[in-house]
């Protein structure tokens, strides 16, 4: 019995040693693989070494380059570099570049070869001018985003004003998508009739007043389709009222035209 017990103890110790050896071996393999992976991810062959910037029309390319370069110097968990071509944080990089200026509408990233990152910047284009005072105006794009202070001269831009000004005035949406669509449609239709829109005023009850280049104010209802309203206007221009000589002669003196009531028109003429 004593001999048997001693043999069992020796066998147990042998198995325990082999188990520890296997665990140590596997741990060593994991460490070697991780070290190799870290070395591979840090090798210059797979890291961005050049940054090219395009599309910046009014913004300094150097500022965009430096912003991207600064972000790509960071690392994941202090180990994996951001500039590794397999791990470039594209979303974070886009947001970082957009933060430079509200004028940047979009940022597109593309890899050229294995070491060049191309950054294409898309700048916002002025669609209209939004003003909250006589000389406090901003350019807005076709999404209603204010992105740049505008000069006091209005030029050919439509001037938009609002009865209730938004709390945010710069780098945010100051004109709703519905209003932008309204302005685009009205401008397109009026241009076909040879009339240019100079300004648009939005009221708190969602009505609009359009001022034409003849200084005529046209009042619209925001709750009715702009297409429907315009169709009513142009159908009424062919009515007997517009055929009357006294109306035609004074058409250039039209001061206000209220078209909020379907096929009924309410108008006033400028005083002599």
Taking strands numbered 1, 2, ... along the chain, how are they ordered across the largest sheet?
A: 8-7-6-9-10-11-12-13-14
Into which percentage range does the β-strand content fall?
A: 25-35%
| Overall geometry | elongated
Structural class from helices and strands? Answer: alpha/beta
Major sheet details: 9 strands, mixed
Q: What percent of residues adopt helix (DSSP H or I)? A: 25-40%
Supply Rg.
34 Å
Question: Architecture of the largest domain, according to CATH?
Answer: 3-Layer(aba) Sandwich
What is the name of the CATH superfamily of the largest domain?
Cell division protein FtsQ/DivIB
Mean pLDDT: 82
Q: What's the CATH class label of the largest domain? A: Alpha Beta
Number of domains: 3
First-to-last CA distance: 131 Å
Encode the helix/strand succession as letters: HEHEEHEEEEEEHEEEHHHEE
Which fold name fills CATH's third level, the topology of the largest domain?
Rossmann fold
What's the total count of β strands? 14
Number of helices: 7
Low-confidence stretches: none
């Amino acid at each position: 019995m004593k001999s048997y017990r001693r043999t069992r103890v020796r066998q147990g110790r042998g198995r325990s040693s082999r188990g520890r050896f296997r665990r140590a071996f596997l741990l060593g393999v994991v460490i070697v693989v991780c070290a190799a992976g870290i070395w591979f991810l840090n090798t210059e062959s797979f890291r961005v070494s050049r940054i090219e910037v395009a599309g910046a029309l009014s913004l300094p390319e150097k500022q965009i380059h430096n912003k991207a370069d600064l972000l790509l110097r960071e690392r994941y968990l202090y180990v994996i570099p951001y500039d590794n071509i397999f791990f470039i944080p594209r979303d974070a990089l886009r947001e970082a570049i957009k933060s430079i200026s509200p004028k940047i509408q979009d940022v597109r990233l593309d890899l050229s070869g294995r070491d060049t990152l191309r950054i294409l910047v898309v700048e916002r284009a002025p669609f209209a001018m939004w003003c909250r005072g006589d000389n406090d105006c901003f350019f807005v794009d076709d999404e209603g985003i204010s992105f740049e202070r505008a000069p006091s001269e209005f030029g050919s831009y439509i001037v938009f004003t609002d009865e209730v000004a938004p709390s945010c005035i710069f780098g945010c949406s100051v004109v709703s998508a519905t209003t932008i669509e309204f302005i685009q449609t009205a401008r397109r239709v009026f241009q076909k009739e040879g009339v240019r829109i100079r300004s648009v005023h939005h009221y708190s009850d969602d009505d609009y007043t359009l001022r034409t280049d003849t200084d005529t104010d046209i009042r619209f209802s925001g709750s009715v389709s702009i297409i429907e309203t315009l169709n009513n206007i142009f159908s009424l221009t062919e009515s007997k009222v517009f055929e009357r000589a006294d109306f035609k002669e004074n058409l250039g003196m039209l001061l206000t035209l209220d078209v909020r009531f379907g096929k009924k028109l309410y108008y006033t003429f400028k005083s002599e």
